[in-house]
Amino acid sequence: MLMNGVVPGNQERGWNDPPQFSYGLQVAHGPQRNLLNKRPPPALTSGAGAPPAAPPSSNPLAPPPCAVAPPLLNPAGPPPGAVATPPPPHLGQMRTKREAAISQSESEPEVEGVMSVLNGALAACRRAVKAQVCNEVAKRLHLMEDSWRSGRLSLPVRRRMDTLSAELQKGRWDAADDIHRSLMVDHVTEVSQWMVGVKRLIAETRNLSPELLEPLQKVRGPVEDSAEPVREPVKEPGELQQSLQLVQKEEEPDSAEPAQNPVEPVQDPVEPVQDPVSES
Amino acid sequence: MTTYQEFIQQNEDRDGVRFSWNLWPSSRLEATRLVVPVSCLFTPLKERPNLPPVQYEPVLCSRANCKAVLNPLCQVDFRAKIWACNFCFQRNPFPPSYAGISDVNQPAELMPQFSTIEYIVQRGPAAPLIFLYVVDTCLEEEDLQALKESLQMSLSLLPPNALVGLITFGRMVQVHELSCEGIAKSYVFRGTKDLTAKQIQEMLGLTKPAVTGQQGRPLAPQDAAATCKFLQPVHRVDMNLTDLLGELQRDPWPVPQGKRPLRSTGVALSVAVGLLEGTFPNTGARVMLFIGGPPTQGPGMVVGDELKTPIRSWHDIQKDNARHLKKATKYYEALANRSATNGHSIDIYACALDQTGLLEMKCLSNLTGGHIVMGDSFNTSLFKQTFQRVFSKDYNGDFRMAFGGVLEVKVKELGIGGTSQWKVCGLNPSTTLGIYFEVVNQHNAPVPQGGRGAVQFVTQYQHSNTQRRIRVTTIARNWADAQSQIQHIESSFDQEAAAVLMARLGVFRAESEEGPDVLRWLDRQLIRLCQKFGQFNKDDPTSFRLSESLSLYPQFMFHLRRSPFLQVFNNSPDESSYYRHHFVRQDLTQSLIMIQPILYSYSFHGPPEPVLLDSSSILPDRILLMDTFFQLVIYHGETIAQWRKAGYQEMAEYENFKQLLQAPLDDAQEILQTRFPMPRYIDTEHGGSQARFLLSKVNPSQTHNNLYAWGQETGAPILTDDVSLQVFMDHLKKLAVSSSA
């Protein structure tokens, strides 16, 4: 019953282990605020404060008293103890997101698109960065591609890598960096072997002089989803976190499925080749 | 016209200061008669989003033994461009850059709203932050894997220019070279033999070779950064280090049946401290120690390797049966002092089901401003997220951690400035110090003209963005003559601050004295305070009254007496050390939560409300949320639990019940998402075994002893022989009004 983006703790290894929050949820908060910080006025000094008189519930099966509760959905109110076949649980908001998620299953990220961007960036780096570093990065990109193609990466990871490569291509270095961090925090087991290569790639690419960035721009990037109700264009880092949370929400129902083999022929891009002017 | 409550709150918001007394008694004798000393809680780096730092050096008083910073309390002659120091009355000329000031064009540091102000000062090249990981490899496979992943993750959270290093240890201690190319190399030390700093530095190649009989000297910082192969910038070695971490194996030495692994924590720390001392003295650095069990060999060992000899308990310590305790504590204290001298912090991340030796090692963190995090396993959300939060960032995108803190406190005594200085090393925005003052005026000496005392706090530190900064807070309070103005002094009492300050004194005593003596001391202070300020008729307990400014204080003391900070029963020595460590560094609000947990009630009777921490608050149709700081407990009353079990929350027409169940969870989330360290999360109900966390904290106003005396059965009786608040207050009143004092 915890909110989305939250996973229960590891009760096997740690007693009363608290739930785990996604990177986006943790970063969104400022310093510690104390909303629960009131104490009631002290009890009368002579003897104990009289405990509030609450009617003891004699029938444990009785439903919550509806007289003082917020209005029930069914205004007639339930008869005590006799409830007909209960209606399906009210998932509310979740349903619309789920529908949206199903409707965009065709936007399953493609490894080719992601790899072409990353390799493009790497190619751009080769002219300015030491060969040894580039080879190390290449090794890790290869590892990632391998994991992706053999179905070892979960959907949330694939989706976020897709977004990362899109940001990288647009020259939005901070956004790309933030996504890499969120992946390291939320999915370290899946990504730790190769993510540092992506991290280094972002770091080196952002330092390149603009003319070197041409190979990156020429790459056919991941297809932009124009009719997407959930994922909005990210303008600010704050929005990125929001969109990550939304992505999390839609990913929750899907995360259980085994990763499909995403190998499909690369679609012809709907959009023309990117404008060569770089954004930095 | 502000009340004292408002005055206290405004001062805390602006300056991060809470004084026990906001009117100061004018003589030493009167101060001791007040029982609670004149003292304050001070948060040097309180987060102030509306306080942009200024980019110039502070103006100092020119008197050599004063050097107070220009502040709003100083008298200024704008025409002559002269200011008078309010601490020593020295007249100082303004520096030439202040030529343009006037009373309509004042520099920020003179304005009252800048009683707290921060200066950015440039002194030499910006020094990078340094993080040295010291990792125990005697862990279970699952734990080691989880720890490795957390460390790899942390590399993504470090700033690219930070320097990072890795020492691993088990039976031996390995210092890893982080060169970018070729074969990975490491330097190995025997875990049994302690070495001096000089030996360590020589063996690691950190000293210049001896030239014609000269002693080896440590490298200059610039050389060290370039050539220190053990501490390298993250942006250069992150890929190699990630691989290195990924390839770490468990300590290869086999552990025979009935034995503990040989863990050389003492030597590992000695090497870490020596390495940093030899390469980056006086630069902000963090040693992060990760351990999965106690030190079992070498200097600083806490227990032997035979499992049949358990690690010391409180009982052992009281019976003087803890062989290694004194020697180990002394060893770690020496390391801690060296580290503090160099401005280096030491964190301890201890994850194990049994104790790990925090009692002996706590000084490493306490003296250097480092963290202590205690968990059951590295593969838990509690450790992983708490560790992530070490690297949390503020509203500017900078780390909340600060380094190399030095705090100076300056006071005015009869015209002569007096200063005290402390090294605080590691700091964060919530670090709060307790500072205790001694009034030195002689009794019957006249109250100083102008009637105000002043204190100035000057905190120099290295910001996480590597800037050197100085934060200056200057405050004043009026002196008062205790003979004629005792009521005013009484109304200036801040009972919350006083409770925390006395509690810190109590913890300090508890760590150096026998347990029962501390409780007697605390009780005696409380009785004296009640005798001094209570309104009563002699020998008539029922007439006893306390004014509003003191009314909550006895309750705080009651809960403090029962708290794990003063009661070691039911906690291991490590647990007590852990709780005390956090208690003496948190700000006032969090400290109060630790002393007297907050209890909120959720029911259909109305919106959520705070309720008494009392057994009478435990009712069948309520959900309770209790925050003790270390735990968040959600307790479902008997009826609620039955409804939940029956599944009413799944039914559409019982949406309100679902919302009721969700409400405390939502409120708990807010705390879970921000608190450091992350608390345990306990979801329990009437009759549940975990309900004991709630039952042991509430005031047991109903017990099995007095249940039938109550008449009406409301609330849950607690099975305890502990004294209740009511009985405690009755005794207190009797003693306070007694004429045979």
UniProtKB/TrEMBL annotation, chain A:
<keyword id="KW-0963">Cytoplasm</keyword>
<feature type="compositionally biased region" description="Low complexity">
    <location>
        <begin position="262"/>
        <end position="280"/>
    </location>
</feature>
<dbReference type="Pfam" id="PF07304">
    <property type="entry name" value="SRA1"/>
</dbReference>
<keyword id="KW-0597">Phosphoprotein</keyword>
<keyword id="KW-0804">Transcription</keyword>
<keyword id="KW-0539">Nucleus</keyword>
<comment type="subunit">
    <text>SRA1 RNA exists in a ribonucleoprotein complex containing NCOA1. The RNA also forms a complex with PUS1 and RARG in the nucleus. Interacts with AR.</text>
</comment>
<keyword id="KW-0053">Apoptosis</keyword>
<comment type="function">
    <text>Functional RNA which acts as a transcriptional coactivator that selectively enhances steroid receptor-mediated transactivation ligand-independently through a mechanism involving the modulating N-terminal domain (AF-1) of steroid receptors. Also mediates transcriptional coactivation of steroid receptors ligand-dependently through the steroid-binding domain (AF-2). Enhances cellular proliferation and differentiation and promotes apoptosis in vivo. May play a role in tumorigenesis.</text>
</comment>
<keyword id="KW-0805">Transcription regulation</keyword>
<keyword id="KW-0010">Activator</keyword>
<protein>
    <recommendedName>
        <fullName>Steroid receptor RNA activator 1</fullName>
    </recommendedName>
</protein>
<keyword id="KW-0675">Receptor</keyword>
<dbReference type="GO" id="GO:0006915">
    <property type="term" value="P:apoptotic process"/>
</dbReference>
<keyword id="KW-0687">Ribonucleoprotein</keyword>
<comment type="similarity">
    <text>Belongs to the SRA1 family.</text>
</comment>
<feature type="region of interest" description="Disordered">
    <location>
        <begin position="1"/>
        <end position="93"/>
    </location>
</feature>
<dbReference type="GO" id="GO:0005737">
    <property type="term" value="C:cytoplasm"/>
</dbReference>
<dbReference type="GO" id="GO:0006357">
    <property type="term" value="P:regulation of transcription by RNA polymerase II"/>
</dbReference>
<feature type="compositionally biased region" description="Basic and acidic residues">
    <location>
        <begin position="228"/>
        <end position="238"/>
    </location>
</feature>
<feature type="compositionally biased region" description="Pro residues">
    <location>
        <begin position="52"/>
        <end position="90"/>
    </location>
</feature>
<feature type="region of interest" description="Disordered">
    <location>
        <begin position="219"/>
        <end position="280"/>
    </location>
</feature>
Automatic annotation (TrEMBL), chain B:
<keyword id="KW-0813">Transport</keyword>
<feature type="domain" description="Zinc finger Sec23/Sec24-type">
    <location>
        <begin position="58"/>
        <end position="98"/>
    </location>
</feature>
<dbReference type="GO" id="GO:0006886">
    <property type="term" value="P:intracellular protein transport"/>
</dbReference>
<dbReference type="InterPro" id="IPR036465">
    <property type="entry name" value="vWFA_dom_sf"/>
</dbReference>
<dbReference type="GO" id="GO:0005829">
    <property type="term" value="C:cytosol"/>
</dbReference>
<dbReference type="InterPro" id="IPR012990">
    <property type="entry name" value="Beta-sandwich_Sec23_24"/>
</dbReference>
<dbReference type="InterPro" id="IPR029006">
    <property type="entry name" value="ADF-H/Gelsolin-like_dom_sf"/>
</dbReference>
<dbReference type="Pfam" id="PF00626">
    <property type="entry name" value="Gelsolin"/>
</dbReference>
<keyword id="KW-0931">ER-Golgi transport</keyword>
<dbReference type="GO" id="GO:0008270">
    <property type="term" value="F:zinc ion binding"/>
</dbReference>
<dbReference type="GO" id="GO:0005096">
    <property type="term" value="F:GTPase activator activity"/>
</dbReference>
<feature type="domain" description="Sec23/Sec24 beta-sandwich">
    <location>
        <begin position="408"/>
        <end position="480"/>
    </location>
</feature>
<dbReference type="InterPro" id="IPR036174">
    <property type="entry name" value="Znf_Sec23_Sec24_sf"/>
</dbReference>
<comment type="similarity">
    <text>Belongs to the SEC23/SEC24 family. SEC23 subfamily.</text>
</comment>
<keyword id="KW-0968">Cytoplasmic vesicle</keyword>
<protein>
    <recommendedName>
        <fullName>Protein transport protein SEC23</fullName>
    </recommendedName>
</protein>
<feature type="domain" description="Sec23/Sec24 helical">
    <location>
        <begin position="494"/>
        <end position="592"/>
    </location>
</feature>
<keyword id="KW-0862">Zinc</keyword>
<keyword id="KW-0963">Cytoplasm</keyword>
<dbReference type="Pfam" id="PF04811">
    <property type="entry name" value="Sec23_trunk"/>
</dbReference>
<dbReference type="GO" id="GO:0005789">
    <property type="term" value="C:endoplasmic reticulum membrane"/>
</dbReference>
<dbReference type="InterPro" id="IPR036180">
    <property type="entry name" value="Gelsolin-like_dom_sf"/>
</dbReference>
